[in-house]
Design a protein that fits this description.
CATH class of the largest domain: Alpha Beta
Number of domains: 2
CATH architecture of the largest domain: 3-Layer(aba) Sandwich
Number of helices: 12
Distance between the termini: 72 Å
Strand order of the largest sheet: 11-10-9-12-13-15-14
Low-confidence stretches: 1-5
CATH superfamily of the largest domain: Vaccinia Virus protein VP39
Strand content: 15-25%
Helix content: 25-40%
CATH topology of the largest domain: Rossmann fold
Radius of gyration: 23 Å
Shape: globular
Order of helices and strands: EEEHEHHEHEHEEHEHEHEEHEHHEHE
Length: about 400
């Protein structure tokens, strides 16, 4: 039988946060619902434990019924792996013709990813008032939860898949990502895009600087590009972002790297006030709709950030200044944006292309023939576009 604290009574449910409701031992229960992906709390919840068969759990998850786990934590992890295997299993005699165009392949791939994520998110675990996990053999994940969620505010319920993601993010934050251009590590926070693809960092590290007095870093994220510019001798770097997590992450990284005296981190939508001889931006590369808030680092709906940067750049450049746009052409190979459309946007913004530096990525997906988007990834080129006001 679960302990009384395992089933928070309805009156203890905290609003204005989203709340998940379920019935357990003939009692109405409720707790705060946590979902960094933005999923609403499931409407149907059943109790599951070590006796729940994987096939039955998968069927319920596919139907939209969540399973709140009350068994052994390690068994819950094994069940999640079993659900993932079933989600990846292709039905017999269901040969699917390849998509006719790359954009169709991309959207089908995204659709399949979204469905798989929804299904696997249906296995839930409880968290106590202090983020303790009231399950047998549960690890102490309180530090990881504190980093991602902040101070605890009563009992809550979270997808096991998300909780395991917090563990991975916590480990990345502790050990960091090696950045050869810095000769040091960048430590990404949960929800902040990690600079694991180093080719775009190398572009900023190696392209000749137009000036070393001042630079703007638009959408700084972890602060990696701001740090690279500071290490290259730029006297003052103003780095902007809107996400509080990114701002905290960037401040921590530039302080750890010893460049906080050169780098100012401010909250802003794209540009800070004033003009600079160098304005750098690495926007999300794929013009598609994110399926969760975390994906805004990868997907740029309607090219909002890209177009915002281009359209505002001329007004923030000093005479003879340069804007550095770091952009992959993956969207072009996926049929989501053409090169002609990109160049037309540059022209419409009153800009000219002063030069371009290209590099091919070397991440594992470029050679993974099983990836549905392999053809596009294998052809991908990342570029640093040197832009000037017309």
């Amino acid at each position: 039988m679960p302990s009384p604290s395992s089933c928070p009574p309805v009156e203890h449910a905290v609003s204005p946060h989203q709340v998940i409701h379920w019935t357990e031992d003939e009692r109405a229960c409720a707790a705060r619902w946590r979902s960094e992906s933005g999923n609403p709390p499931p409407r149907r919840v059943v109790i599951a434990d070590d006796r729940t068969p994987a096939d039955a759990a998968y069927r319920l998850a596919c139907e939209g019924t969540a399973l709140l786990w009350r068994g052994d934590f390690q068994n819950a992890r094994q069940l999640l792996q079993a659900l993932a295997r079933r989600a990846e299993r292709k039905p017999r005699n269901s040969a699917v013709a390849p998509a006719a165009v790359p954009s169709e392949a991309f959207h089908l791939h995204r659709q399949a990813q979204s469905q798989r994520a929804r299904t696997l998110a249906m296995l839930l675990v409880p968290l106590d008032d202090d983020y303790g996990i009231p399950l047998r053999r549960a690890p102490d994940l309180r530090p990881a939860c504190m980093e991602a969620y902040g101070a605890a505010e009563g009992p809550s319920v979270v997808s096991l898949r998300e909780l395991l993601g917090l563990i991975g993010a916590h480990e990345w934050r502790k050990k960091g990502v090696e950045i050869p251009a810095l000769g040091a590590r960048i430590h990404p926070h949960y929800g902040v895009f990690s600079p694991v693809r180093g080719e775009y960092v190398a572009l900023v590290a190696n392209t000749p600087l137009p000036a070393t007095t001042l630079a703007f870093d638009i959408g700084t994220g972890t602060g990696v590009l701001a740090a690279v510019l500071a290490r290259r001798g730029v006297a003052r770097v103003v780095a902007t972002d809107q996400d509080p997590r990114a701002l905290a992450c960037a401040r921590e990284n530039v302080a750890r790297l010893g460049v906080a005296g050169q780098v100012e981190i401010i909250q802003a939508d794209l540009f800070p006030d004033g003009r600079a001889p160098l304005v750098v931006c690495n926007p999300p590369w794929v013009p598609a709709r994110p399926s969760s808030p975390i994906e805004y680092a990868v997907f740029d709906p309607d090219s909002r950030m890209l177009l915002g940067f281009l359209n505002g750049l001329a007004a923030h450049l000093t005479p003879h200044g340069e804007g550095w746009l770091i952009l992959s052409d993956l969207a072009e190979h996926l049929g989501l944006r053409s090169r002609a459309e990109l160049l037309a946007a540059v022209d419409a913004a009153g800009l000219t292309v002063a030069g371009r530096v290209d590099v091919r990525p070397h991440h594992p997906r470029t050679t993974d023939a099983s990836d549905p988007l392999h053809a596009a990834r294998a052809a991908e080129v990342t570029s640093l576009w040197r832009l000037a006001a017309s």
